[in-house]
Amino acid sequence: MRFKSVIHLQSLDCLKDVALAAMRVFTGIFLMHGTWDNIISSERMGEFSGFMQTNGFALPGLMAGLSVYAQFICGGLMVLGLLTRWAGLIMVFNFIVAFVMVHLDDPFRAQFPALILIFVNFYLAAEGSGRFGLDRILFKSDF
User: Fold this and answer.
1) Phi and psi (nearest 5°) for 26?
2) CB atoms within 10 A of CB 113
3) 3-class DSSP state for residue 86?
4) How many Cβ atoms sit within 10 Å of the Cβ of residue 12?
5) pLDDT tens digit string along 17-45?
6) Could you tell me which residues come within 8 angstroms of residue 22 by beta carbon, excluding any fewer than 6 positions away?
7) For residue 111, what is the enclosing H or E element?
8) Residue 17 and residue 58: Cα distance in Å, rounded?
9) pLDDT at position 143, please?
10) Do residues 91 and 121 make contact, with C-beta atoms less than 8 angstroms apart?
11) Which of 35, 40, 63, 89 is most buried (CB neighbours < 10 A)?
């Protein structure tokens, strides 16, 4: 084994597709799990709408529903690896808005969850679904 391949851990290259799929599926499940209670409970959706109103969102009832359903649908698309680039891009926008409206003045540790969601989704938008997504199977692409 050559020194360069040891230093750069090139033996891990074989895990790239698995790592991408794991990140995509985990992120999608996280998004779906985090919004499911708002979808099944009008009371929880009302609480989220109130939270958005408190944080200065215009049309908080509409924006709450839009954010919740966008996260849930995009999360499902990510789990499947279907339209992954679009789902990632939509979530980048969603979490940039959340960051600016809610977390901008927070300390860095409190900002981190929103920021990591921006960057993970940015990566998924740039990279696509990878080898194990439906995009590759249906469209012969990482779309």
Assistant:
1) -60, -45
2) 13
3) helix
4) 9
5) 999 999 999 999 999 999 999 999 999 99
6) none
7) helix 108-127
8) 41
9) 58
10) yes
11) 35
Q: What angle do CA 106, 97, 71 make, to 5 degrees?
A: 110
What is the rounded CA–CA span in Å between residue 82 and residue 75?
10
The answer to whether 112 touches 120, Cβ cutoff 8 Å, is: no
Q: How many residues does the chain have?
A: 143
Rg, Å, the chain Cα set: 18
Quote the CA–CA distance of 71 and 64 in Å, as a whole number: 11
- The pair of structure tokens assigned to 6 is 């040891």
Contacts of 95 (CB under 8 A, 6+ apart): 114, 117, 118, 121
Each domain of the chain, given as residue ranges in start order, spans 17-139
pTM score, whole prediction: 0.90
For residue 64, which of 29, 30, 102 has the smallest C-alpha distance? 102
Judge contact between 71 and 35, C-beta under 8 A: yes
pLDDT tens-digit series, residues 46-85: 999 999 999 999 999 999 999 999 999 999 999 999 999 9
| DSSP 3-state of 81 | coil
With cut-offs at 50, 70 and 90, classify the pLDDT of residue 1: low
